[in-house]
What we know:
CATH topology: His-Me finger endonuclease fold
Number of strands: 5
Bound molecules: zinc ion
Amino acid sequence: MIETIEHAKHGSYREKLFDPKWKAKRKQILERDGYRCVICNNITDLTVHHKQYHFSTRLNRYRDPWEYDNKYLITLCESCHRRGHSKFDVPTMNI
Length: 95
Ligand SMILES: [Zn+2]
Ligand SMILES: [Zn+2]
């Protein structure tokens, strides 16, 4: 499986996607969505996408990827994911 990482503004995001805490969270989302892309039902090259990014003004940092509520996470295939990111900017919420 390929992880798409164009979330460059998060700096160390890439490393964090190898964190066991993210792997566990990612598995929860994949299981919830039945290991399919929610847009096209593709079952290959799945990636878990964040619908929003949360910036904590108190901590002065972004939330770690696994700290998000499951409702902000969604299973997409590589091509839907890429298409989504080219069309829309992921909104960043200050929390
Ligand atoms: Zn898809
Ligand atoms: Zn994404």
